[in-house]
Amino acid sequence: MEPLAVATAVQIAYVIALIAVLIGPVTICEMKGQDWLVGANWLTKGVSCWIGMFRLASPSSWWARHFYGPKKMARAEERYAWEKE
User: Fold this and answer.
1) With contact defined as beta carbons under 8 Å apart, do 58 and 33 qualify?
2) CA-to-CA distance for 33 and 49, rounded, in angstroms?
């Protein structure tokens, strides 16, 4: 029986692709404060985390504090006004 990946380079490329496709979106979702989308990730087979990567981050999240300017932070605060209540 022959192995699925013939060369070491193919195996390394496969692992890198898996990390980029599966773990990358989950990490970005967590950094944006989209915890409920990460939880839904188990039910939607990864689709919800890809959606969460493109959604506006919560203003209290690490992502918003480090990457958002004043204009985008104002949009995030307006969208997530229910969090402050």
Assistant:
1) yes
2) 12
Query: Cβ(80)–Cβ(59) under 8 Å?
Result: yes
**DSSP assignment, residue 4?**
S
Q: What is the DSSP string of 24-82?
A: HHHHHHHHTT-HHHHHHHHHHTTHHHHHHHHSPPPTTSHHHHHH--HHHHHHHHHHTGG
d(CA 12, CA 55) in angstroms, rounded, equals 31
Taking alpha carbons only, the member of 82, 72, 78 closest to residue 63 is 72
Q: pTM for the whole thing?
A: 0.69
Torsion of CA 51, 52, 57, 61, to 10 degrees: -170
Residues lower than pLDDT 70 in the chain: 1-6, 83-85
